[in-house]
Amino acid sequence: MFTASYEALRMALEAVWAHKMRAALTLLGVVVGVATIIASMTVIAGVRKIIDDQMKDALSANVFQVQRYDNVGFQFGPRRRERRPEMKPELAEAIRERCPSVRAVGVEVWKGSMTARRGGLKSPPTVGLAGGTPEFALNNGLYVDRGRFLTQQDMTSTRHLIVIGDDVVESLFGTIDPIGEYIRIGPDRFEVIGTFEKRGEALGESLDSYCCIPLPVFFRLYGEQSVYLTVQAWSSEVFDQAMDEVTEVMRVERRLKPGEPNNFAIWTPETLQQSFRSFSQWVTVAGFGICTISLLVAGIGIMNIMLISVTERTREIGVRMALGGKRSSILRQFIIEAIMLSEVGGGIGILVGFLLAIVINYFLHFPTPIPVWSITLAVVFCSAVGLIFGIWPAVKAARLNPIEALHHE
User: pTM of the full predicted structure?
Assistant: First the structure.
């Protein structure tokens, strides 16, 4: 049995090698399908790892966010939320007064794509400018490594104070101590009172290109806008209770009737992770769809090339039968040959998937762990394609009449 299978395997490889161009064109669909599985699953696994790692530090312990819209990230149908009322800073005071499980409430608002300048130096135009309250740094898991952060006294002052991220420090000051120096964002001049600790990057983008100024100053310069609330519970034990209390206060403040849906969103790191997992499931389904179509086309090609092979080797089959060869051995040989054709394409596809993962890792600078299950699935798919589409040519070869096969030209 083993010898017969080995011989069938050898003949299959020789058949593929004898018709290299024909085999290559036939197996292109297998290569595309398998590479799609490997590459798409690798990208999803890498992005998921980054999101999981970043979300662990996105907010401090026992902190959740209240915002106007649903979870940032992967949402469909945003038009249905356009009429939601804006979030007002006054909501923070209502939560402080009526939510006993809440320890602190911060208010923040953001303006993106800003450029910071100092003399002839300027930062890239990617600086995010936040207006925040004293709870901003603590609730967002940020730390000041030089100087100080904003205080409650700064909220009532008219001074233009700013705490800057590490990218702004490097762009405008280098090795110079920035504390007490002045920078400009647009036409406005700010005194640097602190710098944030370096955080690094994710998905190829820096996490240190941001600054924070007092919320009242932000409103005076850029107008009042819808804000975000960051809410810290007293402990993990009362975290869910704090969210329930905040939800109740928000519904009362927004005059929502019983049964009406919330016109605001409670956001935690877990909600973004769940949102991404839901999105990645659709991407996975799409990847499997592309793979299935590619493998279906490839399977038809494999069946075609095997039928041609049966025709070309009809006389050889007749000789084998005349010499005592069993129909089962011929059937086994052609099935193994079809599976081998598919597996060769699968092997090339896995290699291409590996190379794509390396390229993605090089250009996007994020981890690309290749899921072992995706390789196993690719191998199983290839074997199934070879088996399913190789059965009919194998049966046709095994059913040949020996006498007619010997007379075939």
Answer: 0.65
